[in-house]
Design a protein that fits this description.
The chain has about 350 residues and is of the alpha/beta class. About 30% of the residues lie in helices and about 25% in strands. Strand 8 and strand 9 form a beta hairpin. Helix 7 runs parallel beside helix 9. The longest helix is centred in the middle third of the chain and has 17 residues. It is globular. The chain binds NADP nicotinamide-adenine-dinucleotide phosphate. NADP nicotinamide-adenine-dinucleotide phosphate binds next to helix 1, helix 4 and helix 13.
């Protein structure tokens, strides 16, 4: 019998749900035991219900699993959730109330004051907010979230700078991949040969989530980081990988080699604990003048490493640089998986 913990996936047929299945196939701690999606998929074998969009095959064991109703009855106690926000807002609390650990990707609960919004390398200690949740007291269940796919790459690049030099101002302009919009997502006639300068609610999410992630946890609440922040988000005709042009002003002045060292030396709890999905190097600075590029660099560290490049002086703020992060791995399924690994390492998963 397997000694791995049984996990379920809510929204298992979607783009992020598929990544969960791919990343969990050989996971040493977790085993997929339950899948749920909408009424459209319920009762069907997974391979028939899902439009599989990944380059590896559907794991044989999962292909024949039947999609269950998206209800807590019969679900395992650890749930990875990959639902649209509107549906997540209704379903995730039901699973937490039923005693499940809900490890969510959606924006539904991210900014709720008692819900941890976590990147394990950046603010793993915010997980303590779980203890303030009513679900936790009533049933033992709780919810933990990971950030939006463009906020996560940005914060991975900002955190090492904020720790050493303190951020005063951040401006970020994104070029986001089409896989970030789910499946079928953006119509090909809208995106081919085009750039769409609007992604609903994305700029607001980037700004508020960045400040919560880099904020301070005191007395059971997170005080957002006080720096000024402005984001502009664009959808571009790239399959995977969100690229961001970032400018920053720092409180403590620094030399370029000091910034590069801050990125390259960055290690945190997931690396110390050797969590299975933790990349050896969370952030890598690329010195080649025209990198990072999504086609070549978004799979660095198995898609869990954030690539930074093109550091140069900024005539308006202090410095500007380019950031690249895999949106469905580090930006979604991999982020949630690393959160679950941290929860297990800290004893929250029984
Ligand atoms: N794609 C990314 O890069 C990314 C990154 C970070 C965060 N996220 C977030 O992750 C979530 C999922 O995104 P996605 O890109 O995977 O979306 P998606 O491809 O559209 O998948 C949505 C999933 O939700 C299921 N679903 C829809 N209605 C449902 C209902 N009423 N009850 C139960 N399940 C239902 C769908 O099942 P059916 O197949 O049966 O319809 C499908 O499995 C979203 O909140 C998104 O914002 C996405």
């Amino acid at each position: 019998m397997s000694s791995r913990l049984s996990v379920g996936i809510l929204g298992a047929t979607g783009i992020v749900g598929q990544r969960f299945i791919q990343m969990l196939e050989h996971h040493p701690w977790f085993e997929v035991a339950w899948l749920a999606a909408s009424d459209r998929s319920e009762g069907r074998p997974y391979a028939e219900a899902a439009r599989w969009r990944l380059k590896t095959a559907i794991p044989a064991r999962v292909a024949n699993m039947t999609i269950s109703p998206a209800k807590p009855g019969g679900a395992p106690k650890i749930i990875f959730a990959a639902l649209d926000a509107a549906i997540a807002r209704e379903l995730e609390p039901q699973f937490a109330a039923a005693g499940c650990a809900v490890v969510s990707n959606s924006s539904a609960l991210r900014m709720q004051s008692d819900v941890p919004l976590v990147i394990p390398e950046v603010n793993g200690h915010h997980i303590a907010l779980i203890e303030t949740q009513a679900w936790r007291r009533a049933s033992g269940g709780f919810a933990v979230t990971n950030p939006n796919c463009s906020a996560i790459g940005l914060v991975m690049a900002l955190a090492p700078l904020h720790r050493r030099f303190e951020l005063e101002t951040v401006m970020a302009v994104t070029m986001q991949a089409v896989s970030g919009a789910g499946y079928p997502g953006v119509a090909s006639l809208d995106i081919l040969g085009n750039v769409i300068p609007y992604i609903a609610k994305e700029e607001e999410k980037m700004e508020e989530e960045t400040q919560k992630l880099l904020g301070t946890l005191t007395d059971g609440r997170v005080e957002p980081a006080p720096f000024a922040m402005s984001a502009q988000c664009n959808r571009v005709a790239v399959e995977d990988g969100h690229t961001e042009s970032v400018s920053v002003r720092l409180k403590h002045k620094a030399k370029p080699e000091e910034l590069i060292a801050a990125w390259n030396d960055f290690r945190a709890e997931p690396q110390k604990l050797r969590l299975p999905s933790a990349p050896e190097r969370p952030v890598v600075y690329m010195r080649t003048h025209d990198r990072p590029q999504p086609r070549f660099d978004c799979d660095l560290g198995g898609g869990m490493t954030t690539a930074v490049g093109r550091l140069r002086p900024c005539k308006v703020l202090d410095w500007k640089f380019t950031v690249l992060s895999h949106n469905t791995i580090r930006g979604a399924a991999g982020a949630a998986l690393l959160n679950a690994e941290l929860l297990k390492a800290k004893g929250y998963l029984g």
